Amino acid sequence: MLQGPASQPQIDIATPIARELNAVLDVFDRELASDLPFVNRLTQQVRNYRGKLLRPKLLLLAGRASGELTHDHVVLAAVVEMVHMATLVHDDVLDEADMRRRHDTVNRLVGNEGAVMLGDFLISHAYHLCSSLSSTFASRRIAAVTNTVCEGELLQIENRGNILLSEETYFDIIRRKTAALTAVCCEMGAVASGADDETIAALTRYGADLGVAFQIVDDLLDLTATEHETGKSVGRDAEMGKPTLPVIRFLAGASAADREAMIAALTHPTPDTPATLRSMLRGSDAIEQAFDAAASYVTSATAAIAPLPDSDAKASLIAAAEFVLARRQ
Amino acid sequence: MLQGPASQPQIDIATPIARELNAVLDVFDRELASDLPFVNRLTQQVRNYRGKLLRPKLLLLAGRASGELTHDHVVLAAVVEMVHMATLVHDDVLDEADMRRRHDTVNRLVGNEGAVMLGDFLISHAYHLCSSLSSTFASRRIAAVTNTVCEGELLQIENRGNILLSEETYFDIIRRKTAALTAVCCEMGAVASGADDETIAALTRYGADLGVAFQIVDDLLDLTATEHETGKSVGRDAEMGKPTLPVIRFLAGASAADREAMIAALTHPTPDTPATLRSMLRGSDAIEQAFDAAASYVTSATAAIAPLPDSDAKASLIAAAEFVLARRQ
């Protein structure tokens, strides 16, 4: 098994792509500039959401690990970040329906209307930027993956309140809503470098497995971490009736009484539900099981790119995968 | 001045493009088919929204009026309808509307979460379908116009509750949110037919002017029509603090007392506000003024395409413009 918290990577995974990453932010900002001051104020707010820039980094690192970086890589990296920002803005609208977030989201600042439309504005500009490339390949892949992401979100909405969500459907949801995009980041990075089919497939597989691991850990943190640790609201999945892997594993292995107690807690969620769940889960090995599942996806991700020639970029990709697990602390 | 209600056109404007219009619906349905039954149920609901198919008709008629129709026209017509449907679904979330074309809105059926995500799904598929064409021209134009539509919506949101909205900003909003798309429909129809620059410009101008007229009348109907007549929620603009052309013209021409009464009604909207506004507006010529403004855009639209060679398609375009005014009854 891969190492846990103690192994937090010491390298800065962005070192091999530092110059291009700066260029990505320039392209991102130029694409969104509007003649309307109100629109510029809103997109400025979105810039505050910028976190780890995981998706642009994956795209650039995949490109670097399989060839030379070009301006197309920079544009594509800005596109995937814009797609991701759009999903964040719309996710915040979705979550606000039942609950107020405790920090300034776009919907908090300008209402749901502004947030819905700003998300649309971001997605529109992502496609616009993408269509500026000479080949239609990227536009096709980006539109195909956003189709899949939306299906994942809709599948999740359909299953909201489905306490007995199957593990199969849970994985179907996270593959579509999260892993599809990280996979396409790595795929497009490799394609834009002119990589061969085998290398493209290896990096795509890496991106898909990393995405699954990332989402499992993200869901875990929502159950186990504090708001201070994650910088965002926690406990929302339980409050919104979204069972995640630890809950699914707990229900699969629990005694009849524990199972009943967990189902009761999930069926009528209150603000106390996350704390109740936490204490029930900590009395079982369900959290460890979910973490191990994430770790096995990280193992699979790094194994997928093992055949690639060694490079700083490849080392960064491996470190990025391991960092997914280190987030857990 | 163009004739009003009495002149409701007797021709079916779709006759010259009937076959292609059926093909558009097939392409539309095939593009949206999902492996997820829940998604298919939602897109089925969206199909109930289908009204006049104005945008696909404009695109096909512009293509026919300037050359031969191709499969690209059919695909593009499905794309613009999908874009339009996405804006309807998100508009209903923004407006908290319950009814559209005599059917429950998506937000009413599955909540705002489902409606936001279904709108995203539609826009994603619009780009996906568009990117299936061999040239990148359409993808660029579609993404550029959706940028503009979003800006128009954001400008409108910024001005929500701005009772003293200027006529200039009102026109800026409707040019971006409505006329930009009808203009691009006509432009892309002509471009896909291989029309010369002059013809493309004439049809683009026609589409832009028709779009402005259409939105003025749509806003008028929200003030003057009943839910039964329009098949959708009415009075929403006044309730949502969105002054439209009749209100702007009324405020510009009213006595100080009438002006004050109108501003008071708009400042604290209640479910009775639409009725109050209606009765105040009917005591002035503001509704006629707004209708005349729409009529002048229709005149300009038909004048723009006068130089085109006569054809059934051109006759349909002229009838379509006149029909915008006939909706008023």
Describe the structure.
Two copies of one chain form a homodimer. Chain A has one domain (5-326): Farnesyl Diphosphate Synthase (Orthogonal Bundle), CATH 1.10.600.10. Chain A is globular and about 60 Å long. Chain A is an all-alpha fold. The longest helix of chain A is centred in the middle third of the chain and has 28 residues, at 197-224. In chain A, helix 14 packs antiparallel against helix 15 (312-326). Chain A contains 15 helices and no strands. Chains A and B meet through helix 2, helix 4, helix 5 and helix 6 of A and helix 2, helix 4, helix 5 and helix 6 of B.
In short:
The structure is a homodimer of 329-residue chains. By secondary structure, the first copy, chain A, is mainly alpha-helical. In chain A, 73% of the residues lie in helices and 0% in strands.
Strand content of chain A: under 5%
* Helix count, DSSP H or I runs of 4 or more residues of chain A: 15
- Would you give the CATH topology of chain A? Farnesyl Diphosphate Synthase
Give average pLDDT of chain A, whole number: 89
In the CATH classification, which architecture of chain A applies? Orthogonal Bundle
CATH C-level class of chain A = Mainly Alpha
H and E order of chain A: HHHHHHHHHHHHHHH
Distance between the termini of chain A: 16 Å
Oligomer designation? homodimer
At the fourth level of CATH, the homologous superfamily of chain A is: Farnesyl Diphosphate Synthase
Biggest sheet details of chain A? none
Please state the CA-atom Rg of chain A, rounded to the nearest Å: 20 Å
